[in-house]
Amino acid sequence: MKLEPALPVDEVLKPLSAAFGEARNAVLVAQPGAGKTTRAPLALMNAAWLGGRRIVMLEPRRIAARAAARFMAQSLGEKVGERVGYSVRFERCVSAKTQIEIVTEGVLTRRLQKDPMLAEVGLVIFDEFHERSLEADLALAFALDIQESLRPDLRLLVMSATIDANAVARLLGDAPIVRSPGKAYPIETHYLGRATRQTVASDVADAAALALRRHRGSLLAFLPGEAEIHRAVSALKERAPGPAVDLLPLYGSLSPSLQDRAIAPSAEGRRKAVLATTIAETSLTIEGVSIVIDGGFKRVPRFDPGSAMTRLDTVRVSAAAAEQRRGRAGRLGPGVCYRLWRDEETLALAPHDTAEILQADLASFALELAHWGIGDARRLKLIDAPPAGAMSQAKDLLTRLTAIDGEGRITEHGKQVAKLPLHPRLAHMVIIGKARGEGRLAADIAAILQERDILKGVEDASLASRLSLLKRDPRLARARLAAGQIRKIAGIESGADAGDPGALLALAYSDRIAQARDRRGYLRLANGQGARIEESDALARETFLAVATTDGQAADARIFLAAPIRQETIEALFGDRIETRSSVYWNRRAEAVSAKQERRLDALILEEKPFADADPEDVAQAMVEGVRSLGLSSLPWSHRARSLQSRVALMRRIEADGSWPDVSDAALSKSLETWLKPFLYGRTRRQHLAEIDMASALRSLLPATLQRALEQLLPERIEVPSGSAIEIDYQSGDTPVLRVKLQELFGARSLPPLAKGRLKLRVELLSPAGRPLAVTQDLESFWTNAYAQVRSEMRGRYPKHHWPEDPLSAPPSRGRPSGSTPAGRR
Hints:
Layout: H1 10-22, E1 25-30, H2 36-44, E2 54-58, H3 62-75, E3 84-88, E4 91-93, E5 100-103, H4 105-114, E6 121-126, H5 134-149, E7 155-160, H6 165-171, E8 177-180, E9 187-191, H7 200-214, E10 218-222, H8 226-238, E11 245-250, H9 256-263, E12 271-276, E13 289-294, E14 297-304, E15 309-316, H10 319-327, E16 335-339, H11 363-372, H12 388-400, H13 412-419, H14 424-435, H15 439-450, H16 463-470, H17 477-490, H18 501-508, E17 513-516, E18 522-525, E19 530-532, E20 544-550, E21 557-564, H19 567-574, E22 579-587, E23 592-601, E24 604-610, H20 616-630, H21 639-654, H22 665-670, H23 672-675, H24 694-699, H25 704-713, E25 717-719, E26 725-729, E27 737-741, E28 762-766, E29 772-776, H26 779-797
Parallel strand pairs: 1-7, 1-8, 2-5, 2-6, 3-5, 6-7, 9-16, 10-12, 10-13, 11-12, 13-16, 19-21, 27-28
Antiparallel strand pairs: 3-4, 14-15, 17-18, 17-20, 18-19, 20-21, 22-23, 23-24, 25-26, 26-27, 28-29
Helix pairs in contact: 1-2, 2-3, 4-5, 7-8, 11-12, 13-14, 14-15, 14-18, 15-17
């Protein structure tokens, strides 16, 4: 078969077909614009090794699938649905004559589950595999499993321009790699100032207006999402791009007719500016485009297993995606590309996009595995293994939905869930809703939720308002079509749309049932996360909401769509999950222990009341938490207790063998249960802390042997020659201090050493009035050298006190005037 005009991929089609004569699998790497999407299937459809079977080609995007089918059918001089057809969501155009069927991702996965033999299929093609969608990874893994176990004659072809061909070839059993260099039209690249997430729409509009003035041809601009596209269209209109320029948006939820208009050739004498999302990056050819504006951003879903929420993040494109976008300018001839960043920043871009399996909600993936009969993803051939945390969360959810059992096997209910082209949450809701007689309403809700909410941020957050608009608002046309498809697949008979939207939402999102907090508009979700809704929204007055969508933030996520739900409905639906718990805790506001009994659904408190007979152990533990909250300064530290703490700390430093406990404030705060808790029994309020003997509490950390050793090595007091027992100050630094009146040490050449001689006392000698006279650690040296000067100065000031010339031979006294009886002579 010879097709016109000739395309670069034509040169490798014969080698590609020949490769399948020797191998079951192959990889085709062809540059953008080489023609692989439309030429490869046509070249292979009559190959002898196909045995008359059909070719099924997976195309990630619906618009590309329809466009490719139209182009191939026109190449054969036929209508779509004859030898070339397609099956996409809401639409199937095939016939008995169809040899090439182009399908989108969900269609292929369900077909593999339903008919794993693929008896009528000889070749499955995976186009644009570099996008690494979760569905494509899964479908390829299933196809390889079929090939190994059921259909050794089944052929598989993976195609892309920017994949790691060697890694994919290894996955396919060292498959041959066929490369088509493509035809490289020159593309002039300009780098403009860096755009930001906030300014990208305006910056793209500026660049587009500039490019349309400078260059001929149509323009393709890339923006992160629909909101930015509409802002850019409005901004570009203000910049007057020219009377012959049609401004056309292009994104996934746009109607097929408007999508087709964006990719069709312009009318004679006119050109177009197409403002698109990532939908236009790859296989889709937009007629007449020779100018590309790359805003440098895209929007990707990021799933957080901790909150079970998916948020949309605006991120920088990868280097591979930027090159794909740039290549759009040179598909049909020389072109120009304007990039909204600096040249040197290109080196900082990530080489490739992150595979969806590494950052997506894996609930549907886990259900498909269970339906396939596999509990462990490692049994399949996948380029990247799914993250353990996301898989665990997905299995927990499926278990809660009763779609899989405790062993991870799919249940009968799970099989029904898997048949519906919906997220497992929504499929579960539809099936249970049908059983409750609310099937039509459940289908409507599922359709609204699975379609992107075009009213988000425009209308209030009420699901009821969306449901009322569903029947008539043109903006919800796709949702109406989806609702009909869901009802047909689920076997829901015609009837009334009556029911409780809140109850149905809760069936899908029981972890997102929300309860109002103290501040209006702020709520707590059943999963423990916070959420908020605009204070002006009528839903902000409700006590309980069933929440469908949020912005995915972990802290106080903004609620975009919800419905009110009554507490009695919650209890009726989830009575088996409601727990009664007794809670004893430290009440910070009252600074006392509180005890209450709660009925809870996960993090939601449905009912609470106080109770009196709390376990003393729980009360003591709550007091521990109270002290931890208040800090150690809340305890009645006596001088004696602090001295004991310092003595133990000093011995821990002297004998650094770990035998002495750490009694620093930091360590004591961490070990309150060990030393303080026994002294908290019977106490319930902060005021009761004043009754604690802190010295006894600290001493409980020391075994009896250490208590005896402490008294011997670092005694609390020491007896001086006068007979007085003087307290040693252990809190004034690393060296213990003895403060004693000078007369009480007459006759003493030294004082007993501490810690078996490893520590010397610092002696502060005091006047009869208790004022410092001298400091020494060598008492005999003081008597010999410094005492005479002290005596000379003090005799006149304290004439009635004893100031002998020879202090070493004089009897000690307790500071009495001359003539009184010394303490040692009584």
